[in-house]
Amino acid sequence: MTETATLAESYTEMTELLLPNDTNNLGRALGGAVLHWMDICGAIAGMRFANKQVVTASMDHVDFISPIDLGEVAVVQAYVFNTGRTSIDVKVDVRAEDPRENEERKTTASYFTFVALDDDGRPTEVPDLDCPSDEEEALRREAVDGRREQFEDLIDRMED
């Protein structure tokens, strides 16, 4: 019998208060800091899913659609939405929250692929993804469709 794990078991949420060390001269989050947070959150989701160490294999295209300002809270959410034999696909979303104004907005999203490693550092098999609830299946479908659309947009831009 093949081992399975659920999307919900992988779900991870991190928060970061944007402090001066992670800002540019405009008082906004450095893109590299945001990518760092995304990579960590995605890796945690992958490790929770596989119960193994994971390493980043790839990250898809990233658009920064809204800044995160000094003093705001960055909320990074990740979950596994697809698997291969040794690979795990993770959707990572970032939003900014202004706790003083009780406002939030989407800032970026991307899709990461991680590879699970055994104790010797070699790729190892991962569980199959199970989405037992309608909510989990809807999140999985949203991620699959979103990644496909992002890829199609990239192809269109390359052809122009």
TrEMBL record:
Q: Which GO terms describe its molecular function?
A: fatty acyl-CoA hydrolase activity
CDD domains recorded for this chain? BFIT_BACH (cd03442)
Composition-biased stretches (Acidic residues): 127-137
- InterPro entries documented for this protein: Cytosol_ACT, HOTDOG_ACOT, HotDog_dom_sf, Thioestr_dom
**What keywords does the record list, in alphabetical order?**
Hydrolase
Q: Where is the HotDog ACOT-type domain?
A: 8-120
- What is a single Pfam family found in this protein's UniProt entry? 4HBT
Using the UniProt record, name the top-level EC class of this enzyme in a single word.
hydrolase
Q: Which domain of life is it from?
A: Archaea
Q: EC number(s) in its UniProt entry?
A: 3.1.2.20
Span-the-membrane segments of this chain are none
The UniProt annotation puts the region (Disordered) at 120-145
Q: Which PANTHER family match?
A: ACYL COENZYME A THIOESTER HYDROLASE, CYTOSOLIC ACYL COENZYME A THIOESTER HYDROLASE
The name this protein carries in UniProt is: Acyl-CoA thioesterase
Query: What organism is recorded for this protein?
Result: Halolamina litorea
Q: What is the lineage of its organism?
A: Archaea, Methanobacteriati, Methanobacteriota, Stenosarchaea group, Halobacteria
